[in-house]
Amino acid sequence: MDVEITAGPAFAMGVVTLPAGGSVRVEAGAMAMTRGDIEIETSTRGGFMAGLKRTFGGESFFVNDFRSGTGGQVGVTATLPGDMAKVTLDGETALMVQSGSWSASDPDIDVDSKWGGGKTFFSGEGLILLRCSGAGDLLMASYGAIVPTELAAGETLTLDTGHVVAFDETVQYSVRKAGSWKSTLLGGEGLVTDFTGPGRVWLQTRSSVDLIGWIKQVNPQRSGSDR
User: pTM of the prediction?
Assistant: First the structure.
């Protein structure tokens, strides 16, 4: 997938250049522009259950396939301001992507969902991770800049749960309190995720969970009796 990422890391857009006969799969609503000979086909890609599983993973029920007969471009953006990164999958190691971060990929990449169990439930990040597998390129987005890290076997990286973008399936992870219950409840750190290599981990420099909390703090919702 020929991708040029522009306007990053604050307001990144991924411009995918399609050759004659080429195509790219894009998250519904992520297309910002097209140029040249581009056609679009909307589907669930894999049927009703496949679309439903993506919905549980924080993605849209539908995806859009953009195709070009003679060549063209598709511009892809994310909802929140931030960066984008292209990741190449080798067909052997799958990539686990946090819900909302998958933006586009080669049609040969299978974007499925996988239960994270109680680990992601207690982290407040949702029950589902998207499992991206196959050989090809994938474009993912973040809130803030994206920082990649390579972990050696047995090496551990600890992230605030709201800063996780993606990680290789070879990386083991577990969620725990940042410290004592006092630190968790009063210190503002909450829960963290320990990642143990080998493999790659991508983090984002901002947290959408913190953003939502800040918005609620400065603009609290009125109760029914106040209306």
Answer: 0.81
Angle at 78 between CA 72 and CA 80, to 5 degrees: 155
Domain parsing of the chain, residue ranges? 2-211
Is 3 within 8 Å of 14 (Cβ atoms)? yes
Of 102, 149, 140, whose CA–CA distance to 12 is shortest?
A: 140
What is the percent of the chain where pLDDT is above 70? 77
Of the candidates 54, 90, 95, the one whose C-alpha atom is nearest the C-alpha of residue 202 is: 95
- Per CATH, the homologous superfamily of domain 2-211 is Mitochondrial biogenesis AIM24 (3.60.160.10)
How far apart are the C-alpha atoms of 33 and 27, rounded to whole Å?
14
Taking the C-alpha atoms of 83, 88, 92 and 96 in order, what is their torsion angle to the nearest 10 degrees? 10
Average of per-residue pLDDT values in the chain: 83
Confidence of residue 43 (pLDDT cuts 50, 70, 90): confident
